Amino acid sequence: MMTPVYLTILILCYPKVNYTVFRLSGFIGLIIAFYNIIPVFSAFSQRWWHGILHIPLLIISLYVFILSLKKRFKRN
């Protein structure tokens, strides 16, 4: 439950972050979000709101992961 909070703090400190932690946290957030979103929508269960609640985690994690990859390609 704290992953979006940590990722948001890392985004606010973006130019001065450890990029390994930045990328790894974003990737782990993506995995957690996919594991919680995909089964809910694919099974057509009554708990669709559970998937809706994990959409912010998916968006923040994707943004962090893309930011970390952009920085990697700019250095080379």
* Overall 3D form: elongated
Summed up, the helix count is 4
**Structural class of the secondary structure composition?**
mainly alpha
Mean pLDDT: 83
Beta fraction of the residues?
A: under 5%
Helix content estimate: over 70%
Low-confidence stretches: none
How many DSSP-defined strands? Answer: 0
The major pleated sheet works out as: none
Question: How many angstroms separate the termini?
Answer: 35 Å
Order of helices and strands: HHHH
> What value does the Rg take, in angstroms?
14 Å
The total number of structural domains is 1
Description:
It is a single chain. By secondary structure, the chain is mostly helical. It contains four helices and no strands. It has one domain (3-75). Helix 1 packs across helix 2 (19-42). The N and C termini lie far apart (35 Å).
List the helices and strands and how they pair.
Blueprint: H1 3-12, H2 19-42, H3 48-53, H4 55-75
Summarize the model shown:
The protein has 76 residues and is mainly α. Helix content is 80%, strand content 0%. It contains four helices and no strands.
